[in-house]
Amino acid sequence: MEPKKMAIIATKGTLDWAYPPLILSSTAAALGYEVQVFCTFYGLSLLRKDLSGIRISPLANPAMPMPVPMPVLVQALPGMEAMATMMMKNKMKAKGVASLEELRSLCLEADVKFIACQMTVDLFEFKPSEFIDGIEFGGATTFLDFAGSADIQLYI
Q: What is the helix (H) or strand (E) element at residue 138, kind and residue range?
């Protein structure tokens, strides 16, 4: 019997949007699924060697729980994004949540196939050397061949 398949399109590059594709793909792989993640536009940040630039913005994120109520104007002040990112990373660490680096490593160890959208790599003038080893560079057709037969398809 063939394993179930999961296809994920990752398009976002903020901290809160980086976790779902990594958590879902590592979990599915651990359950025996064949998993591919197509990273395009800002989702390419998940595949870059340096993840330190991945942040979270409290601005325009009304569901983000804040320790104290904060007016929108305050959220827009310089430094608030860095503070929100630091607070979220500290909370995750205190709660035992794996870091992005750890989750990504788990995915690679579990044979999750990451595909970096070649068009977006070219568009943003990224160099292949800026990305982690073990990924594939390809276009939409590379991914769609797999996604068309996947049991689960997610757009994140």
A: strand 136-138
Q: How many CB atoms are located within 10 Å of the residue 146 CB?
A: 18
In a structure prediction context, what are the per-residue pLDDT tens digits for the chain, which is 156 residues long?
A: 899 999 999 999 999 899 999 999 999 999 999 999 999 999 999 999 999 989 887 666 666 666 666 655 565 667 777 877 888 888 889 999 999 999 999 999 999 999 999 999 999 999 999 999 999 999 999 999 999 999 999 999
Amino acid in position 105: S
Q: CA torsion 37→129→48→113, rounded to 10°?
A: 20
DSSP of 96-135, one letter per residue? TPPPHHHHHHHHHHTTPEEEEEHHHHHHTT--GGGB-TT-
Residue 108 exposure: Cα atoms within 13 Å on the Cβ side? 14
Do 9 and 38 touch, CB atoms closer than 8 A?
yes
Whether 107 contacts 26, CB under 8 Å: yes
Q: φ, ψ for residue 121 (rounded to 5)?
A: -60, -45
